[in-house]
Amino acid sequence: xxxxxxxxxxxxxxxxxxxxxxxxxxxxxxxxxxxxxxxxxxxxxxxxxxxxxxxxxxxxxxxxxxxxxxxxxxxxxxxxxxxxxxxxxxxxxxxxxxxxxxxxxxxxxxxxxxxxxxxxxxxxxxxxxxxxxxxxxxxxxxxxxxxxxxxxxxxxxxxxxxxxxxxxxxxxxxxxxxxxxxxxxxxxxxxxxxxxxxxxxxxxxxxxxxxxxxxxxxxxxxxxxxxxxxxxxxxxxxxxxxxxxxxxxxxxxxxxxxxxxxxxxxxxxxxxxxxxxxxxxxxxxxxxxxxxxxxxxxxxxxxxxxxxxxxxxxxxxxxxxxxxxxxxxxxxx
Length: 333
Hints:
Elements lengths: L10 H6 L5 H12 L3 H9 L2 H4 L15 H13 L4 H10 L1 H7 L10 H13 L2 H15 L8 E9 L5 E5 L5 E3 L6 E5 L2 E12 L5 E8 L8 H4 L6 E4 L6 H9 L3 E4 L12 H14 L4 H8 L11 H25 L1
């Protein structure tokens, strides 16, 4: 792969300025303006791979590709649902993508191995959460968050169940290619295998917190961590219904807007519980919008990687990319 030259703009760059799809270019310009790139890149520049020489990686020489370019490429992959090989291909072919990422006419596109290594650096440094928080702070500074409460929900992200190999373990059991850290769960009578993304959403549809677990974890196991800083109201479906949780929230002065479910010995919900559930559900539906948006528009429904940490990194980056698109939509209103 040809290294990024990071030189001054050439005649070829100037000639390409007015080329490319105008709609895509306009959309990418809007998205680019909604991301605090300098703040997000700053902690990446402090990683040993970039700081050991004491020089900015964008200076001439055989150094890693500018992390600003790499981070922009990762966001492109999320917004357009691209695998690493597809991203490399698009960066070689699409003028609007090259312009957005900061690649010059003479620069070669990063290859898929470069993306794998870059993601590993960020993952091992725990910078997925840093990127997520940086984007969320930027959205908050624009006044786009509606801080009237937190809506909690979870979704199963499917993982392949794998297949048996011809090898056996020490006990004589067939070894499979199944992801050992993914789990099974039942939903509406159907079995699912994979991971579960637990998300806290504000009333504007912006995801404010996210955590990832095996699909076998019950939704309620992670809600308390997601809403620990909430001071007004928590809204959730009946899967989170627990009297101790309601009591703890009320003790903090937080409204427990959690749907009720029947308890042992209760034949059906009381009329007031049904009325409460209907009122909560109307607002709680906002918390389902991010999952629907990511599934429909970003094609996010299945795991790309094996292992909890790799998938958690991918999920958090996906939600961060969603938040950018959602903030653009809110700002346009």
